[in-house]
Specification:
With about 325 residues, the protein is an alpha/beta fold. The protein has 14 helices and nine strands. The chain folds into two domains: about 90 residues; about 200 residues, 3-Layer(aba) Sandwich (Rossmann fold), CATH 3.40.50. Strand 4, helix 10 and strand 5 form a beta-alpha-beta unit. Bound molecules: S-adenosylmethionine.
Length: about 325
């Protein structure tokens, strides 16, 4: 009778042998770790992946953890057959152009580490400009916040992590995204101050119910979305990216809700595409917002439009 451990290993081998990444394992079976790394970088480059070296580093770090690459080169016993198979599996996904964040399952944003799946947009570093703007404009003190189109919860949770007396609501049209946002709130220890609501923009929110409204809506023009790299077009939700024919569709919708739900003198701040500063500023002014301004990101591009709700509402 066979040993249960041998059977487990043999079953695992059968599964691995049947998987799509078999060609990689076959190619790597007789190679050393540095040779595998070099081969991986070359394959990623040939597949048209610009960040081949850093992607290879992330994938290797993931399978080798807690050992470092240097440790595993010095002691080949730290790089097992199972780890090589695991690396082949991750590499195969990357060669199919799945983003690294989805392969590894998480993405750093602000000071947080957030779960990411193909149900949510991977939070981008540019979006930290919106977090910075809100923290600059709003002093500590009790406040109610809403994040329209919360996705992974990135903006809402970053702001709550910085202001312990704020509470907030994340709204999204996607129930699957909201489930990830809820998991992220628990993961960050912020679930006592964050709740999540399914709905379209601010439609489900009461008039004069929040002090701060933030949003990073879909803002890519449909024709531009069609030409985006496979990582984005094939693996990230279109609903998170496609802002309609002129890219402004969702600003128009959410501004109607913003002036209704934000209390007088409250802040409305949205992320924009680098070339949308003038258009979105005009939409803010048409919506009756005061003190409208634009904040640039670290690359010097217009990235956030903000304004204050004036007078008395509703
Ligand atoms: C650009 S993503 C932003 C995600 C996240 N806030 C971030 O910055 O990483 C836009 C989000 O808006 C959501 N969305 C699209 N249309 C919506 C609508 N009508 N109402 C609410 N959310 C919507 C999408 O599901 C997606 O999660």
């Amino acid at each position: 009778m066979s040993d249960p451990f041998d059977k487990m290993v043999s079953d695992a081998r059968t599964v691995f042998e049947a998987s799509a990444s078999k060609p990689l394992r076959d190619a790597w079976a007789s190679l050393s770790l540095p040779q595998i790394r070099a081969d991986l970088i070359q394959r990623l480059s040939v597949a048209g992946i610009g960040e081949a070296e850093s992607d290879a580093r992330f994938l290797l770090a993931h399978v080798l953890a807690p050992s470092s690459y240097a440790d595993a080169v010095a002691d080949p016993a730290l790089f097992s057959w199972q780890q090589m198979s695991g690396l082949a599996d991750l590499a195969w996904q990357r060669l199919e152009r799945r983003p690294v964040s989805q392969i590894l399952g998480s993405q750093p944003f602000w000071t947080l580490d957030l779960l990411v799946t193909e149900d949510v947009l991977t939070p981008r570093a540019d979006t930290e400009t919106l977090v910075e703007l809100v923290l600059e404009k709003c002093a500590p003190g009790v406040a109610d916040l809403v994040d329209l189109g919360t996705g992974s919860g990135a903006i809402l949770l970053s702001l709550l992590s910085e202001r312990s007396d704020w509470s907030g609501i994340g709204v999204d049209l996607s129930p699957a995204a909201l489930e990830i946002a809820r998991q992220n709130a628990r993961r960050c220890g912020l679930d006592d101050r964050a709740r999540f609501v399914e709905g379209s923009w601010g439609a489900s929110l009461a008039a004069n119910s929040v002090d701060i409204l933030v949003s990073n809506p879909p803002y890519i023009r449909t024709d531009v979305w069609r030409g985006l790299e496979p990582e984005v077009r094939r693996f990230e939700p279109r609903q998170a990216l496609d802002g309609g024919e002129d890219g402004l569709r969702d600003y128009r919708s959410l501004l109607i809700d913003a002036v209704r739900v934000v209390r007088p003198c409250g802040l409305v701040a949205v992320e924009i595409g680098f070339d949308q500063g003038a258009d979105v500023t005009a939409l803010f002014e048409q919506a009756g917002l005061d003190d409208v301004g634009v904040k640039r990101d670290l690359a010097g591009h217009d990235r956030v439009v903000y304004g204050a709700v004036a007078g008395t509402n509703g």
